[in-house]
Amino acid sequence: MISEKTQLDRSLGFACPRCKMRLVFSSTDMMMKCIHPACGYQYPIHQSIPILINDASSAFCINDFLQNSLTYFSQGHHRQKTNCRIPMNQNALHNFAHVRDLLLHDIPTPLILILGGSIRGIGSEVLLDHPKVRCVETDISFGPHTQIICDAHDIPFANETFDAVVAQAVLEHVADPYRCADEIHRVLKPSGLVYSEIPFMQQVHGGAYDFTRFTLQGHRRLFQKFEPIEYGPLGGPGTALAWAYLHFFDAWTQQPTWRKIVRGFARFTSFWLKYTDAILLNRPGASDAASATFFMGRKSEQTLSDRELVRSYHSASNR
User: How many domains in the chain?
Assistant: First the structure.
């Protein structure tokens, strides 16, 4: 049976990840079925969660989830603990509150798609726990908050479904972030909002599922079909240095006991570095040495040209 929380959103209009035609729920065999005769693909519901994966192109397949194979979720707890140890997104709470206020100013009950939502990100509670905000939490892993299994390369919803899309520390873990950005644009309503956080000066996390880093300029380029509201660094140079310092010591040994000792020493001697961002984060050079950046923007019919992007560099780096 579809969980109560997911069932409330069945009227949203699920779309086939393969052909983007409408999906319908079949209670007889607990499947989501594509209505298009030429496609007709069926997607199972496992542990009360629809598995809406495009087997033809995704790095994952439906059987991964039916057989409870390890996906990124095995790394998810590590990601959460790492962020607690070295916070990379000190402005996240403020940014999420900004998104919430923008939405509620114009929409009584905004609908938000959360990508990578199996584990709630830092600051996201101001959206997820707000009584007037409806959230659909998706991921490519089962987790405490997963409502739908989906791949951001093929978002299983109809065009112009959502008022906002949130991708917090997600797009570094996808093989083709530009395709995902296009999918985000597609499922947003006109003037819908996107909020994205992506690391820049940060070591690999997530093992095989870590693909990409973006400068602030690169992050802006990724969302060139959006009008910017606000963008800039999240974790500053202090956080970036703390990450590098910790991983420098990590590289010396793989032996579990020694690694635990070495990590303890690294954390004890570098814990103070992240606090320097309280001074550095809003300085002109912080963007070029940031641990991570964020982008908040509104869906647009205009596309930022690369020439305009290059010309914007000085002003962007001095936000």
Answer: 2
Task: For residues 123 and 254, state if they share a domain.
Answer: yes
Whether 103 and 239 map to the same domain: the answer is yes
169: left (phi over 0), alpha (psi -120 to 50) or beta: left
Write the Ramachandran bin of 252: left for phi over 0, alpha for psi from -120 to 50, otherwise beta.
Answer: alpha
88, 239 Cβ separation under 8 angstroms: yes
- Residue with the two structure tokens 């479904």: 161
Query: For the ranges 4-13, 141-150, 156-165, 189-198, which has the lowest average pLDDT?
Result: 4-13
SS3 278: helix
With tokens 């609908």, the residue in question is 111
What DSSP string describes 222-234? Answer: HTTTEEEEEEEES
Domain match, 278 and 178 both: yes
Across residues 179-191, what is the average pLDDT?
98
C-alpha angle 6-80-84 in degrees, rounded to nearest 5: 135
103, 38: one domain: no
**CB hemisphere CA count around 264 (13 angstroms):** 6
3 state SS for 283-307: CHHHHHHCCEEEEEEEECCCCCCHH
What CATH number is given to the structural domain containing 295?
3.40.50.150
Last residue of a domain, one of 66, 81, 115: 66
Q: Please name the residue that has the structure tokens 């039916």.
A: 66
Rg of the chain over all Cα atoms, to the nearest angstrom: 20
Pure H helices in 135-236: 177-187, 216-222
| Per-residue pLDDT reduced to its tens digit, 105-154 | 999 999 999 999 998 888 899 999 999 999 999 999 999 999 999 999 99
Task: Single out the residue of 308, 303, 294 nearest to residue 121, CA to CA.
Answer: 294
CATH number of 28's domain: 2.20.25
Q: Is the pLDDT confidence value at 81 over 60?
A: no
In terms of residue numbers, what domain contains 14?
Answer: 4-66
Alpha carbon distance 309, 44 (integer Å): 43
Strand partners, 135: 112
Is there a contact between 279 and 233 (Cβ–Cβ < 8 Å)? no
